[in-house]
Design goal:
heterodimer, A: 339 residues, mainly alpha, MetI-like fold, 2 domains, 0% strand, globular, B: 297 residues, 12 helices, 75% helix
């Protein structure tokens, strides 16, 4: 095996220790830290010791820590995430049920962030040190400071409550929610496949505000990186050559500089996704978006032990996969990268 | 002669432009520091009844859910409390948790970074892999889960937020230590006969302080947002206490009726404070890393 397949295998093997460490961290956080899950589940007050002992046994936390650890790891690798305390369904199947909503939201917000961020970044770089550049840079720095849940609520107040352009929350509305048929769980894809204009418009309207909310801070980060990388590329010798040949600035920027300026941005995509998952928890809570993030928050509120653990492990797995994909994407964009 | 004059002029121009540049950059630092200082002072005084125009916690005979007016500058909430008074005293949790958590993660992360970077070997590999694993996990989610396990309140929030940021400091200090470790003067110190502990504490650690300082201000900006998120989800101070994140959660209930002032003003406080720390970070980065200045990142 050589080249790319070999690299993929190597990367996959490297994910295993990484994942083990994450799983161990989750285990230690949930088991060793103070806070009794049984008391949390049962409410804490006036619970008979017998009931506590029974629950301890049922949850398997009456055994020694090392035994619990081995059992926990083997269960995760077998895909057994336990059963939810509140719904009595397997946590993994519930996570798969909620996951498409989160994926759709994350991808749409990443699309928004990339387009918006990249455009503003390139615009600022081509007009370096002029007024527009300063405005864009202030936006880039300022966007980091905006709390995601606050932005979501403000967008709701302005565009949903006051102006009424967009729905306040959830994924579907009006009559569409009763007739909509989903096969993939990705509503936008389903709507596009059905070709029903009414469905598409409804799904897009519901997606707009959450996607902008989640993508806003990322747009600032991507914009900042695009600007820096574009400035660097525009300084390169081959750009001077292109200009010396008499090419218009437009062609120099669009067909010579753009692709190379993209490289550093793709490298942060993996990191972006991790941040997006964090933001998704808040965005989904604000917009009542039925995804993994709001599932986790509900699990925490209901002290749903296995659901909390399952969600965290699920997110960890998802991040590992994304990081692998981003690494591979990197080689597609930059042919100099060889594995 | 002519050459000397040209050189002299060139030097002068460069000095002037450099000085102007440095000054301009320090404006960012000054503005950031001013914002942070103002917020700290307002929050400290805001804890005393005589400083706030109305009581932030007592239910007064103010109108219920009324928009901004000349009497109540930022309106009132559903329990007839003055929003402005709540806002100037509501930064306690954010500031206390952010400062304590960053101090915690800074000390733990840096010490681990020094040890790991300096000793190398299996310890370094194991620690790096562990830190990378934690770092790759979404920090907000981790903080939420930790707080959920530890319980609500200031103490648990400090531990949770502090834990989440340890890898940030670990990575920065480790990278710096790896750079410093190979320099000739460390070799010289070793040749004199200094022990490892002495080398790390006296000769390696001080070289990592610049990087740590820059990172910590950005980190504070981020920590403010994380604390706000935790309070928003209800893991912060218990209800009657004024708190920006919690007040936003409270305002969410009256959003449909169009009571925008309940959400807007606490949010603006969070943004300004976070921006203040961010600007301090920008300023420090420019100071400690002059190369950055020219790249105009």
């Amino acid at each position: 095996m050589g080249g790319l397949p070999r690299y993929i295998v190597q990367r996959l093997l490297l994910t295993v220790p990484m994942l083990l460490i994450l799983l161990t961290a989750v285990f230690l956080i949930l088991r060793v830290m103070p806070g009794d899950p049984v008391r949390a589940v049962l409410g804490g007050r006036n619970v008979s010791p017998q009931l506590i002992a029974e629950y301890r046994h049922k949850m398997g936390i009456d055994r020694p820590i090392p035994v619990q650890y081995v059992e926990y790891i083997s269960r995760v690798f077998r895909g057994d995430f336990g059963e939810s305390f509140s719904t009595f369904k397997p946590v993994l199947s519930e996570l798969f049920h909620y996951f498409p909503a989160t994926l759709e939201l994350a991808l749409c917000s990443l699309l928004f962030a990339s387009l918006f961020g990249f455009c503003t970044g390139v615009l600022a770089a081509t007009r370096a040190d002029r007024p527009l550049d300063h405005v864009v840079r202030v936006f880039h720095i300022g966007s980091f400071a905006v709390p995601i849940f606050w932005l979501g609520l403000m967008l709701q107040v302005i565009f949903a409550v006051k102006l009424g352009w967009f729905p306040v929350a959830t994924r579907l509305g009006g009559q569409v929610q009763y007739v909509f048929q989903s096969r993939t769980g990705l509503y936008l894809l389903d709507a596009l496949l059905s070709g029903n204009i009414q469905w598409i418009v409804d799904v897009l309207k519901h997606l707009a505000l959450p996607a902008i909310t989640l993508g806003f801070a990322q747009a600032g980060l991507i914009g900042r990186i695009s600007r820096a990388s574009m400035l660097e590329v525009l300084d390169a010798d081959y750009i001077t050559t292109a200009r010396a040949k008499g090419l218009s600035e437009r062609i120099v920027v669009l067909s010579h500089a753009l692709r190379n300026a993209l490289i550093p941005i793709v490298t942060v995509f993996g990191l972006e996704f991790a941040i997006l998952m964090g933001g998704a928890v808040l965005t989904e809570t604000v917009f009542s978006w039925p995804g993994v993030g709001s599932y986790l928050v509900r699990a925490i509120e209901g002290r749903d032990w296995w659901a909390i653990q399952g969600s965290v492990v699920f997110i960890a797995l998802f991040i590992s996969v994304i990081n692998l994909i981003v690494d591979l994407l990197y080689s597609l964009i930059d042919p100099r990268v060889r594995y | 002669m002519v050459r000397a004059i040209i050189h002299g002029l060139d030097w002068l121009v460069r000095q002037v432009s450099r000085g102007r540049h440095a000054l301009r950059k320090q404006t960012i630092l000054k503005v950031g520091l001013a914002i942070v200082l103002l917020f700290v002072l307002v929050t400290v005084f805001g804890q005393y009844e005589w400083f706030t125009p109305y009581s932030p916690t007592l239910y007064r005979d103010a109108p219920r859910l009324e928009g901004p007016s000349s009497v109540h500058w930022m309106g009132t909430d559903q329990l007839q409390r003055d929003v402005f008074s709540r806002i100037i005293s509501g930064g306690k949790a954010s500031l206390v948790v952010a400062f304590c958590a960053v101090a915690l993660s800074m000390s733990v992360g840096s010490v681990l970074g020094w040890i790991s970077g300096f000793t190398g070997g299996y310890l370094d590999r194991g620690l790096s892999l562990t830190m990378d694993a934690i770092y790759s996990f979404p920090s907000t989610v981790l903080a939420i889960v930790l707080v959920a396990m530890l319980g609500a309140g200031l103490g648990p929030m400090i531990w949770a937020v502090g834990f989440v940021y340890i890898p940030t400091y670990f990575r920065v200090t480790r990278a710096e230590v790896l750079r410093v470790r190979e320099t000739p003067y460390i070799e010289a110190v070793r040749a004199i006969g200094a022990g490892n502990v002495r080398i790390v504490l006296r000769h390696v650690a001080p070289n990592t302080v610049n990087a740590i300082m820059a990172v910590s201000s950005f980190n504070l900006a981020d920590a403010i947002l994380t604390v706000a998120a935790l309070s928003f989800l209800g893991f912060g101070l218990p209800p009657p206490a004024p708190d920006w994140g919690f007040d936003i959660q409270n305002g969410q209930k009256f959003l449909q009726s169009g009571s925008w002032w309940l959400i807007t003003f606490p949010g603006l406080m969070i943004i300004t404070l976070s921006l203040g720390f961010g600007l301090v970070g920008e300023g420090i980065s420019d100071l400690v890393n002059p190369k950055r200045k020219r790249k105009k990142v």
